Structure formats: structure tokens, C-alpha cells
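Example 3.2
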Amino acid sequence: MAMRITAALLAAITVSLSAGSAAVALRAMAPKVDPARQTRPPQTPTFTANVDLVQTDVIVRDARGQFIADLKASEFAVYEDGVKQEITSLTMIHGGREHNVLSPPAPRRDGLILPANRPRNDTSGRIFVIIIDDFHLEPAQAQKARQIVGQALRDLIHSGDMFGIVSTGYSSISEQLTYDRQVLESAITKIQGNGLSPREVIEGAQGSQGPTELRHRAHVALSLAYEQMRNLEKVQGRRKAVIYISTGYDFNPFAQSRLEQQALRSRVDAADLQNDPFYRTQQSSQMLAEADLVQELAELTRAANRANATIYTIDPRGLAAGPDVDQDIRTPEWSAHLGTSQDSLRVIAEATGGFAMVNMNNFSAGLKRIDAETSDYYVLAYSSSNADPLKRLRRIEVTTTRPGATVFHRTSYTRAPAR
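Structure, written as C-alpha cells:
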């Protein structure tokens, strides 16, 4: 399996201006003093630029696909928008243990407060955040989600790893980062599915931008995921992976069946309704809704890249051969919806350096691959030489002089908007 490019970075630039000045009117009114006692003249304005540390995960493998664990900082080169940057620190994580290749600068004081009861044998540890999108899981799919999280607890999350779990809907799960495995075991039992069935989508309320409830649920789910990325942005120096369990997103599913249902409610022929000017205007708005979905997915992946977090998406529907008999859905419509929703999961994963587990029933191999990708890697840091606050999108490239080596990393990041 080809590994997706991984790595990312966090950069925020702040500029402060200080200057001394005096008011002419007040100066004119001030009493005269001895020249020797006069105050210093107004200072020249001074501009100060501060560039935060940029961190990116890098995986280097040889021709046989094995991780190369003896690289030095001098064997790496990092470029931002084609300009070579100075590497300020390089840390290698091999087999889950941390080895400093080039000592990092002093740690930042801000960020999440980690639990005090960190195991003594943990020299690095990984951070896993599990997002259960139960707003988009039907009851049968929730059962599969419980099995997947249980398997991740056994095969992926090891001693010294931190993990948290949240849900988007009625499961009401919100567990902060912890080392306590019992917390995850308890959360697994709470996972339930309350997603809309295809028939509920078709028969539900329709707005100018498509099914209103479906759109609301997608917005809630993606907003929660975005906030999790914002929280992870505050954690530095640790490998961060997000396990995202969802059936994906489609803002305009089952269009023909929804048209027929709307015609039935209006007591008109579907062909006449389709030619109605008002309905055609509504259809145009619904097509624009798909562009809104692309925008929301882009915001989520940009936030993940700023946080140096890799998202791995899992579709619990497994290998799907067709719609259930009791769903009464046309196969072409169902297949189109399945493809669109799975594509959304692929976009989230691949844009953040992860991969999507879709159209499969055995997730063991995927979890083992996640384990490997999060156990052996380098953390490279540099201070961006580009202090332009208007240059938000930054392209990065990491190379190595080691013959025959292949470097995997993220290729870009977007600066956080000014807060």
C-alpha cells in the first residue's frame, strides 16, 4: 500500500509596534526647564516580528519500505515556498520511543495541560482522538463502530499513548485526553446510532439548499471536528492522529426520489414540477450546496494541517454491495450517494496525510498500518523566514541526501487567520 504524504506545521506570526510620541499642544504649555534636565527626544518607531516554531512530521523509508532510523539533521533540507529554512530541532520517534537528534528550543508555555499521572516509562507517547460521528450512523452501523473502537483499543492504543473520544450526536460522549483505558472502554458502551435513513432523507423537510436536517447534522459534525483540531493545535512535540468514524457527507442525495416525493405532496406530476421555474431555481441552489460541503471539508483539513494532526477515516458500512431491501431506494441513486459520501471521507483523510478505510469489512490491516505510521517518524522544526501575514498558504518540501530514501510529509499548510 502506498503511504500518503504526511507532515504538517503550526505557524502564527505576531507583530508589535511601540513608539514614543509627545503632543505638540501639551509641549507648548509645559514650563521651561534647564536644558541639562530635558527628557530624551521621542524614540524612532521600532517594528518587531516574531515567528513561531513550525513543526512537521516526516517519515523516511528505504527501497524496501523500512523506516530509516539513523538520519542526522545535516541530511535533511526543508523548503518553504522554495526558500530553504534553517532546521532548529529534529527528534526521532522509533518504536514509540523518543530520541533527540538535534535539541529543540525551549518549549512553549501555552497549550493543553497534560495529565499529571503520565507513565514513567513513556518517553514520547502518541495522542489519539477518536471522533464518533453518530449523527451519521444508523443503529446497525453503530454496532460496527463499537467493534472498531474496541479493536483499536486492543491493537492500536498502547501503554503511554493518550487518547480522547467525542461524539457528534446523541451518544453524548466527550472524554478529554487521558491515559486511563477504562475511560475508553466505558465510552464504547455509549455509542449509539441515530443517523437518518435514506427514506427519512427523502421524506424529510426540503429547503432551498436541500434536505434541511441532513445539512444541519453535517454542519454540527464538521464543526465539532474542527474544534478538536483547534484543541490539538495547542499540543506540541507529540504525534497526533484522529480516528474519524463516519459514513461521510452528501448535501444533495437521492435527488430524483426527493423530486417525486415533493411532487406527491404537491399533488402534481413529477415532470411538471421539474419544469416549474421555482423548482428549477431551487435545484440550482441545491447544487451550490455541494460547493458549501467542499468549503467545510477544506476548513477542516486546513485546521488539521495547522495542528500537525493526521486524520484516518473509517466507514463502518463496510463492503457495500447495494441498498438494503427494506430501504426501497433505486440502486443508481444509492450508488451515487455512497460514492459521494465515501469521497468526502477520502478527502478528509488524504488531505491531512492519512488514508480512508472504506469498502472493507476487515479493519485490522488498516489499524496496524496506522500503528506503524504513528510509531516511527521524525519531528522536524524550523522558524519560517516568511514574516508576511498575508501569505496564508505555504508550500513545504522536505528532502534528504540519503541515497535511495523516500520522504513522506505534508506538502502545504495554511496559516491560522488572525484572532
